[in-house]
Design brief:
It is a single chain. By secondary structure, the protein is mainly β. Helix content is about 0%, strand content about 45%. The strands form two sheets. Strands 1, 2, 3, 5, 7, 9, 10, 12, 13, 15, 16, 18 and 19 form a 13-stranded parallel β-sheet that branches. It starts with a strand and ends with a strand.
């Protein structure tokens, strides 16, 4: 079950979606959303089997702030950016701040690599979060298997003032497990921690 499902169909993304002050307990995913100018805040996500917030495409200003992610040892990821089917490329400013996580597989996973993404079109800011007890890396960036604009789509990735305790891997990890032949790497200084 989902609280909110708005996957991108054909044409424009949904715009101005605001999800606030809700409790989502159980289900496969909490939110599946492709949208522009989105706010997800002051909410509780607990015991999702897979991902709490699943975002195939976002544009404009995306704010994920003040949420609480709770899970036992079997849960999936808290926030996932992963292109699906004919997803348009993600773009804009993404702010993930003032969230608390306890017990998911990962806090953030970025696996959204659409070939038509414009260079330097995404600014990812992760600030003032508390992450405790993940099964894997707290923040995982999974490079594309095929040649795309890759890390060139980011103007910058900033991870600051975020506490990570008892991660099951590195706090921030560029994971080449699924794309071993890909030479795409972040530029020097592109990821600021």
């Amino acid at each position: 079950a989902l609280l909110y499902a708005a996957p991108q169909t054909s044409g424009a993304l949904y715009s101005g979606v605001r999800i606030a002050e809700v409790a989502v307990v159980g289900g496969r995913r909490g939110i599946w959303l492709s949208a522009a100018n989105t706010q997800i805040g002051a909410s509780l996500f607990s015991k999702q089997f897979s991902d709490s917030v699943f975002l195939p495409a976002v544009t404009g200003d995306t704010e994920i702030q003040g949420n609480d992610f709770q899970q036992d040892a079997t849960g999936g990821k808290a926030i996932v950016f992963e292109s699906q089917y004919a997803s348009p490329p993600s773009a804009g400013r993404i702010d993930i701040s003032d969230n608390t996580l306890y017990g998911k597989a990962n806090f953030i996973v970025w696996n959204s690599w659409v070939g038509s993404a414009a260079p330097k079109s995404v600014e990812l800011n992760v600030d003032h979060n508390t992450v405790v007890k993940t099964k894997g890396p707290a923040v995982a960036l999974i490079p594309p298997a095929a040649s795309t604009v890759g890390f060139g789509q980011f103007s910058r990735i900033t991870i600051a003032n975020t506490i990570v305790e008892r991660a099951g891997g590195d706090a921030v990890y560029v994971d080449y497990t699924y794309s071993p032949a890909n030479p795409d790497t972040p530029d020097n200084g592109q990821i600021q921690i």
